[in-house]
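Let us practice reading a record.
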Amino acid sequence: MTQPGKIEAATMCFACGPQNPIGLHIEFRLDSEGRCLGEFTPDANHVGYENTVHGGIIYAALDDVMANVMYLQQRKAHTARCEIRYRRPLAIGETILLSGWIEQERRRLLQMKGEARRGSDQELIADCEASFMLA
């Protein structure tokens, strides 16, 4: 794969930006198979119903783990469509393990998948399928 020039920093990204004072501060990395991995432990600022993490927070984490598959390779892409399925509620303070990967790539369109699993027992909390457009 050809590496394009360096893309701009995303230091204020809500999900992964280290300088965003209200962000999630998720640190992402690529594994040897090209999957993006990260983890996140929600706190009281991320609540929906009492002691339950808001679904939008889980969605934001999943959207960003998929976007970071490209970003960590210096490729810029934007979410075109995303369908998420919530499988189990997540309690405040429970760590989730995030993974995202490319299922298929054609020209500028990428078909992506992502998962959020509870860290303590690997139970699937939510999964999604998305289309991303390369910039």
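A brief commentary: The radius of gyration is 15 Å.
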